[in-house]
């Protein structure tokens, strides 16, 4: 199919772009060769005769895998057709088991475009058309993989853009925002993952002993604790570099546009993504401040919208983030623009504080977690080596003030309020969340009170909704004040169950 093909020809039914076969063949060639090379070295151990024999076996096998994959994708292409009609979007696919799926155009809530690097070379995109409903086996989503990019853009506009006529750019990427990428708990995980990857590659080539020996030579004469500290520092440096690269890949060319009642996020360096959210299914925003980012005066903005929780088997795209970590004032301004408010409810609301009993609960949780960690290290020290005993007392010294500061910060974060048409709830310290949820989007209340909360006169109120995470909680509020707050937020919902 070329970019000049009509969206709805007389016959109606259309095929995917046939260049998908070439894309599949090239992808499988890369995968097969990437798997074959370490396998050959592992089997042959570098001997010339065994290497030649392995190549004589592996090369035909690689070619067979590539040919079989291309043939299977060719059959898939031949047996897949779709039709975008006036009332329905339909997809027929399958070889032995024929699948026929159909979505009403009135229920379509998302049309997302993605393209990995090879698809971009061919000018192709994968189009995912969804209703936002949570049904099994991806029945609420039609995936057209692939079509040409111009056709994908036309489908997105025809199926999704409707409503108001205003449009404009709400946000663009500021390269300076990359400074927030390394301030994340993901950094040490990326560094340790890189170390694990090195050992995995060494295992493929039977070089684990050589790598370990090289490390031993570099640290000859260095004590165990200094060596661990140096390795941890190296892991952190690698993690910082990896986090910067990840940010660039995910958020390159980021922009948020309003197009005729639709919010559209475009981003990505190697894999490009275009995510659309209808404003009529937007129920609020969540201003999220992870600890490190918050200390740097930044925050990100997530959408609270219906139909944002669906995931299919190969969907790893984060659909809800409207703005990556950026200065807090920019995040607040964007939240207001998205909600079409002069000031964002997350910024304007005067939050109601929570009783001191909520502070004491957080102190117990914080010190209890720290004590459990120290106890585990102490047990390992008595059982295995005295190194863990040293780590235990060091952890105790470090965690004692840290636990106090985290508990106090978590208590200060607690708050709730009503701001116009929105319920605002804030909580968290490692991940502080300030959610502004439309009051008419609340479909129910869940009221929970543990034994300890009951003794302290506290209650947790959870507003349930069909949007976003599905539930937003006000933690450890005073019982009387919390119930009155819930009744005022949605008067006709809780009033029959509250005694005057």
Task: Provide a concise account of the structure shown.
46% of the residues lie in helices and 25% in strands. The chain is α+β, with helices and mostly antiparallel strands and 500 residues long. Among the domains are: 179-251, no CATH class; 255-354 and 414-497, no CATH class; 356-412, no CATH class.
Write the layout of secondary structure elements.
Layout: H1 20-44, H2 48-79, E1 81-84, E2 88-93, E3 99-104, E4 110-115, H3 117-122, E5 124-130, E6 141-148, H4 149-160, E7 167-172, H5 186-204, H6 208-218, H7 224-251, E8 255-259, E9 262-267, E10 272-278, E11 282-290, H8 291-295, E12 298-305, E13 321-327, H9 328-339, H10 345-348, H11 356-383, H12 386-413, E14 415-419, E15 422-427, E16 431-438, E17 442-448, H13 451-456, E18 458-465, E19 471-478, H14 479-489, H15 491-494
Antiparallel strand pairs: 1-2, 2-3, 4-5, 4-10, 5-6, 7-8, 8-9, 9-10, 11-12, 11-16, 12-13, 14-15, 15-16, 17-18, 18-19
